[in-house]
Amino acid sequence: MVADGPVQPLSFTGIGANGAVRFDAVIEALVVAGWSGRDSAAMEAHIAELEKLGVPRPKATPMFYRAAASLLTQRPIIEVVGGHSSGEVEPVLFSLPSGLWVGIGSDHTDRKVETIGITISKQLCAKPVSAELWRLEDIADHWDEIIIRSFAWKAGTKRLYQEGPLKLMRHPQDLLDRYCGQGNDLPAGTATFCGTIAVRGEIEPAEKYELEIEDPILHRKINTSYSVAELPKQ
Q1: Beta carbons within 8 Å of 35's beta carbon, 6+ residues apart
Q2: Most CB contacts within 10 A, which of 51, 141, 170, 184?
Q3: What is the mean pLDDT of the chain?
């Protein structure tokens, strides 16, 4: 069910075989896939790092969480309450009238609230997404070779926070079949975060995150970044 009321469109540049095209799109539904690792060891590592923070193990894998589409943003700064949230890089599917597109985004999450309820925590933070997209059909045959990475800035120092190939995660068609049912399409106007990979070191807050997805076959990247403004707790 889509909530009533106006939804602000997002502005994209779609890059396909015939070049680039700019367009606005209204996203009316947001799905966040969790525990979507294909490699059992890699997924266990991510589950274990979250368990250290008090996040309970999932009841099943993968899981699909609904969140408000209004959380999606392309603004350079997001605002959070307190200093216990962090970002994570994810490929993001956008189902649009022109087809399925892939960008990059951050499932920024309040880690303290996540120990109480994952669904609630997904609702508390804005979800930054890139302004550039690739057609899924252009990369579907070499999805496993594509690399995602993130960098975290803290106290003026930049460090590699996440990096790995998408072969560690379920193929998007697998996720769509599980969420929509075999043979059913993801409704137009839906964005789906596809899951993430384990961090290097510990999960921790940062002042800024840089995200990228790299296609080594077609020799291109999508980059985006955002800063985090911490609001005071009363």
Answers
A1: 43, 46, 47, 58, 60, 61, 62, 63, 195
A2: 170
A3: 91
